[in-house]
Every structure is written in structure tokens, then in C-alpha cells.
Design a protein that fits this description.
With 283 residues, this protein is of the alpha/beta class. The chain has two domains: 1-44, no CATH class; 54-280, no CATH class. Helix content is 30%, strand content 15%. It contains nine helices and eight strands. It has an eight-stranded mixed beta sheet, covered by helices on one side.
């Protein structure tokens, strides 16, 4: 079992604590032998490739979906700067470069198999403010790029170097563009906007947003996030409150059925530190 320790130690930098939790002088020092044993087993079985960012269970799930002829899309989500590493590793998997899946071809070269390589135009950064919701496509460094501009999104868009950037602005545009990109098998990677999450006290509606259209019964969205069990109410509100805001505006009709289960999507635990959406595309 993998635990997310970022919330235990607080702050944005806390997310790095788990990387050294068992090192000398750290709280988990006594667990180091177990860590080394598990690491050696993973390496021996060829479950880690490249950066080792993605665990074997995720690749096994993708392989099983392909084997069963499922139509799906994947959206990686993170507050961090690790998406380029994830992109490289996932694309290596698609090209058959993972030692456990040498015959896997999801790079457009196999007839009847989707091309799931993560390409630049399917990467992006969220921008969120009290009166703004946007995705800027083709970049995962929006947070750093707007830092000198005091986080003013319009000033970022006005810069000459950014005139060619494509972006989705406003709820309707974001929902439409995400629907278009995931309506056929594809892989996206979106970096969430940490300043908004931090400003809101790191809870509830300031978290990662999952836009869904409950009236579209052709597509089922599933959201995996490792923080869902640390603060169940806050993790649930990360998605449901934002959707309820839209419901109150007459755009959505969302009915909560369980603490972490909704009639059009389900949020549950995963063993990765990214959020991952699976979209079943229309047949």
C-alpha cells in the first residue's frame, strides 16, 4: 500500500517528503528494509521503466482494457511538475519499451489499436480564479510563467510569445473541449493550478475539478486520486461542490448517491500520486 504523505507534513514542499520518508533521520527510517525489499522485487520483475513514475498496476489496467476491446481515454492530473516524466514513460509503454509489455503497440503502428501516445497538444495547464476557469493547451508550466505577472492570466495571454497558444476559457468551453478531446481514445495530461488550491486553504471547491455532463450517458468518467481518503469530505467537495455551483446555475443536475459515488462518476483510491480520469468513449 502506498500512502500520500504530503498532507501529513503540510505545504506544497511536503509532497517531496514521501520520497525520503525511509531515509536516515526521517520518520520511516525503521521501514527502510521493507522499502528496499519491495523496490528490488519491482525491479526484478521489470515493473519499473524510465523514471519509475508509473506503477505496474496502472499499465496492467491499460493492457487489460485494450485486451477486452474497451474504448477509453485517460487524463493525468497533478499539482506538480512531473508530467513531462510521466509523458516520457507512458509513451515508452505505448511503443513496447516497457519490459513487461514488449508486444504492446499503442503508438499508431498496430492495426485496430488506438494511438494513445501523449502528444504536446494534449497537455495543458488549468488556470482558476474566483471569476475564471481556463485550460491553456500545450504547456504545463503556466504556474511558473505567471509568477512574475502576479498570477494575472490576462497579462500572460497578452505576451507576444503566447499569442499562438490555444486555450479553453469558461465552463462551457472547458467542458466542450475536454469532451471533444476524450470522445475518441486519447491521453491527456493537465496540471492543476496550485495557487488557487493554496489560496482556498487546500480544501473543497478549490481542488481538482472534474467537469462532467450527467446527461451524456454515452460516456462514464472515473476519477482516481490518492488524497480521497485523507479527508473524505474535502476530497468529495473538490469535485461535487464545483459541480453543484453549475447545477445551481441551471447547467447541471447532479445527484449524490454515496459519500464518494455519484450517478455519473466515481472517485476512489489509487496507488499513484496523480489523479487519473478514465473516460469510456461512445461506441
Amino acid at each position: 500500500m502506498v500512502f500520500s504523505l504530503a498532507r501529513l507534513f503540510g505545504g506544497k514542499d511536503g509532497k517531496y517528503v514521501w520520497k525520503k520518508f525511509t531515509e536516515p533521520g526521517e520518520p520511516g527510517e525503521s521501514l527502510r528494509p521493507y522499502y528496499e525489499s519491495m523496490e528490488m522485487q519491482l525491479l526484478a520483475e521489470g515493473r519499473m521503466v524510465g523514471t519509475g513514475m508509473v506503477i505496474a498496476a496502472f499499465f496492467e489496467l491499460v493492457a487489460e482494457l485494450i485486451k477486452n476491446g474497451r474504448s477509453f481515454s485517460i487524463v493525468f492530473r497533478t499539482f506538480g511538475s512531473d508530467l513531462p516524466a510521466v509523458q516520457a514513460e507512458f509513451n515508452a509503454f505505448c511503443a513496447g519499451q516497457h519490459p513487461r509489455y514488449p508486444d504492446m503497440r499503442l503508438d499508431g503502428s498496430a492495426q485496430g489499436k488506438p494511438d494513445l501516445r501523449l502528444v504536446a497538444e494534449n497537455t495543458g495547464s488549468w488556470y482558476r480564479a474566483a471569476d475564471d476557469l481556463s485550460i491553456v493547451w500545450g504547456t504545463t508550466t503556466l504556474e511558473e510563467d505567471t509568477e512574475d505577472l502576479l498570477g494575472v492570466f490576462d497579462d500572460f495571454l497578452k505576451l507576444p510569445a503566447n499569442q499562438s497558444l490555444k486555450f479553453s476559457r469558461g465552463w462551457d468551453a472547458v467542458l466542450q473541449d475536454l469532451h471533444i478531446k476524450t470522445s475518441q481514445p486519447s491521453v491527456l495530461a493537465l496540471r492543476d493550478y496550485f495557487p488557487y488550491w493554496q489560496k482556498g486553504g487546500q480544501h473543497g471547491p478549490y481542488g481538482k475539478l472534474l467537469p462532467v455532463n450527467p446527461t451524456d450517458h454515452r460516456c462514464h468518467a472515473v476519477f482516481f486520486d490518492d488524497n480521497v481518503t485523507l479527508d473524505t469530505e474535502a476530497a468529495t467537495l473538490t469535485v461535487s461542490k464545483m459541480l453543484r455551483v453549475e447545477a445551481e446555475a441551471g447547467k447541471l443536475d447532479l445527484h449524490k448517491t454515496q459519500a464518494t459515488t455519484y450517478d455519473s462518476w466515481k472517485q476512489t483510491r489509487s496507488l499513484t500520486h496523480w489523479s487519473v480520469h478514465f473516460h469510456r468513449a461512445p461506441a
